[in-house]
Amino acid sequence: MNKIAVLTSGGDAPGMNAAIRAVVRRGIFKGLDVYGVKNGYDGLMTGNFIQMDLGSVGDILHRGGTILYSARSERFKTADGQQQALAQLMEVGIDGLVVIGGDGSFKGAGKLTAQGFPTIGIPGTIDNDIAGTDYTIGFDTAVNTAVEAIDKIRDTASSHERTYVIEVMGRDAGDIALWAGMCAGAESIIIPEANYEINDMIDRIKQGHERGKLHSIIVVAEGVCKGTDIGNMIEEKTGFDTRVAVLGHFQRGGSPTAYDRMMSSQMGAKAVDLLVEGKKGVMVGVKNGQLIYTPFEEAAKDRHTIDMSIYHLARSLSI
Ligand code: F6P
């Protein structure tokens, strides 16, 4: 293994830059030439490669976004697109590729490895929705961003004695909603992994109101429904002044937390070590605090699970 490349793919996540830095610096430390691929798989198909030196990843550890840019490529899903990418990799003489992204990105990486080309995945998505790892890069920062926003909304909710519904991201997973809801003390947390009872939510809001609470906070994961649907139902059933806030892409940006920087650094270095050891077609992950790796196909077979004990605890604490 002499030359490796790294790309970011799918929705960006805080910590991706820290992971790029770790791949580049660990690669150079191991005596490799390291290339960055711009614009994810789109850049792989068009040969948008740049050689990375130590300085190219200076001053990025703390920055959100991705210096390599990201894309969700439809063309790369085709056999033609994959052949074109392989041809570009061969032309530059790249021997291995690190893909930082979500499960869709690993499907693409798996296609290259099925044709013999070594790829290693690093889970990078704010959603924390990838099976085969307890953690995905960006999740901690996104949760902190959501909690900070909810804390601020709580101030104005109290002043005006309002009920607030906060819609958070997460695609089909409820992890961001669960963690943000728990850490911001939401009355109800609505996630795809648990059935929600509108009457239960209304009872909780009313009970709080009766004991003098000045506001109610409901956190809803985007994978369940729109925040406005819940807000309308609440207003209809309680008559309370209700507002809806959609946090949206605000959750995807910002400087990564120390935890995200740590995970990105460890996973980035591990990905390079695995390539050097001759591994391919695997995703780096963390399980019970230990760095591990799982074949893409195995991770794809499982479904990501959420820690329901947090859900039940949150319910018992927000009575
Ligand atoms: O996967 C990350 C994520 O931010 C999801 O939480 C969200 O559903 C989706 O990406 C939004 O995608 P886009 O940036 O393409 O609108």
Automatic annotation (TrEMBL):
Q: What name is this protein filed under? A: ATP-dependent 6-phosphofructokinase
Q: Which organism is it from?
A: Metabacillus rhizolycopersici
Which PANTHER family does the UniProt record give? ATP-DEPENDENT 6-PHOSPHOFRUCTOKINASE (PTHR13697:SF4), PHOSPHOFRUCTOKINASE (PTHR13697)
Q: Does the keyword Magnesium apply?
A: yes
Binding of Mg(2+) occurs at 103
Q: Which residues form the active site?
A: 127
Which residues does the annotation say bind substrate?
A: 125-127, 162, 169-171, 222, 243, 249-252
Please name the PROSITE patterns in this protein's record. PHOSPHOFRUCTOKINASE
The gene it comes from is: pfkA
* Annotated keywords: Allosteric enzyme, ATP-binding, Cytoplasm, Glycolysis, Kinase, Magnesium, Metal-binding, Nucleotide-binding, Transferase
Checking Gene3D superfamilies in the record gives: 3.40.50.450, Phosphofructokinase domain
